[in-house]
Design brief:
By secondary structure, the protein is an all-alpha fold. Helix content is about 80%, strand content about 0%. The protein has 18 helices and no strands. Helix 8 runs antiparallel to helix 9. The radius of gyration is 21 Å and the shape is globular. The two termini are about 40 Å apart. The relative contact order is 0.15.
Length: about 450
Amino acid sequence: MNTTQATRPAGAAASIGDKMRQAFAVGKVRWGMLALVFFATTLNYIDRAALGVMQPVLAKAMNWTAQDYANINFWFQVGYAIGFAVQGRFIDIVGVRRAFALAVLLWSIAAAAHGVAASAAGFMVCRFFLGLTEAANYPACVKTTRSWFPAGERAMATGIFNAGTNVGAMLTPMMLPFILGTWGWQAAFYSIGALGAVWLVFWLRKYHNPDVHPGVSQQERDYIQQGVEPAPARVPYSQILRMRGTWAFALAFAVTAPVFWFYLYWLPPFLNQQYSLGISVSQMGIPLIVIYLTADFGSVGGGALSSFMIGRGMPAVRARLLSMLICATCITSIIFAAGASSLWMAVAAISLAIGAHQAWTANIWSLVMDYTPRHMVGSVFGFGGMIGSLGGMFMTQLVGYVLTATNNNYSVLFLMIPCTYFVALTWLYFMAPRGMAGQAGAAESA
């Protein structure tokens, strides 16, 4: 395989289908590793989405107010912010295999512990520890993708593992009504915790880094490592904080990542309030399934879009930014959701916006992988995730305040959401390094 093929996997004029066929032709082990992080992300979001789906039941059982619910989510974000900074660095130092296994074990215990909570305060404690441990998911997934995929496949791979967020959000309203009706809400949390233990067995048996994996062929290993820089000595955290690319990603992520938290936590209450839905597969479940299924298409399609542009010869960073501009334009559809005349009109507006958000996410994560050396990517992503979680903490409190002050009127919130993406895109356009050389130079000049 020549260098051009490694950089542009299917040639300039090939279709996305041709690219996928050639990608599988050089080996399939990396796609198995991707499946592992996809299922981890699915479990991660089942844990998170469960609270939003069960909110009406839990609020009634424990007399929660809208502010109580906002505070419970706030403490998740506190733990998540701390966890992101710690976990990203820990993964770079210890290695993704051991660090991720420990994180999933601890977050499964934290998820099950919700079943013994009996008050809003108890849920705040459980959500804090869940956030602290679940923060490992995305630094681990991004590092896995960075390690196992060449640049031309990263956005596609990122879109696929990030689709696990939507699969988790879809599965939750499908399985919870049965568990709630049969065994109660406590059993729902115990069941969710048990799923993590099942995943952990597969991870420990199957995952290894590409340079030591017993099942990967030399052809696939060479394909993965084309153009990959050798890992130098460990970089001090102070140097990571001086890199321009770290702040390019962190601040853009801080203003856009909280939007998905808003959807995850407040979308079920919004639909329930506006259209008097109950907690059942037929009423609440089907609209959420449609929304998150669309988000899955957006996640994979957004990654495929920039990968296609790269295959046509466009530089990677430029392809990501152009794709993100298209996504930001589509996200404006959310403005029409609050005043929609019917449930399915609201679902259509939300579906387009959340699908475009997931496409945006696939590209911003691929962007940071494009310009960040492999040995730093966990730390850079972890720091950016921490800043994003701080933005999520602010978003959670803002949502609680706005809904309390406006008697649960979502219009203002839906109007604010599209603005955040254009602000973030402008910041990225001027600040994102155009390659690893630019990242290193920015660090040296800082």
